[in-house]
Amino acid sequence: MALLSQIAKDQFFDQLRTKEQLGYNVGASTNSFSSGKLTLDMMVQGESNPTYLLQRIDSFIHGFRQTLVEFDTVKFDALVESIVGKANEQLTSVDTEASRMWTPIEEATYDFAQLADEVESLQKVRLDDVLDMWDRYINPETAVAYTRVD
Fold first, then answer.
1. pLDDT digits (tens, 9 = 90+) for 37-54
2. φ and ψ at residue 125, rounded to 5 degrees
């Protein structure tokens, strides 16, 4: 999900903030819950009409599949390497290490090797896998459990 989130976040910001200039605070992020549910949150704060903003967000979501289809594989591989590199960075403080260890406790998974497992899985992910995830879980036209919350 981190990979999909990064692609969506960059594209969302570029489209709605840079090109359309719809808000001063534009972003996309993911959240995970101990229940195993994940969310992709998209937010625009600005002076524009809220109904219009929702239309533009919907337009982005409906067009994002094509963005994934056309996404450059070299850029994709570089993005994977970047996320893997960040995950494998040497921890620089005890606070950072404690935070990394506290997350599995807080989520009651107690899986302290989760990051290493995620890195291993991430290195195997291909662009087609991300497209499949988009279609299966997020794409409003194909996802069975798609839920929109305004």
1. 778 889 999 888 999 999
2. -70, 140
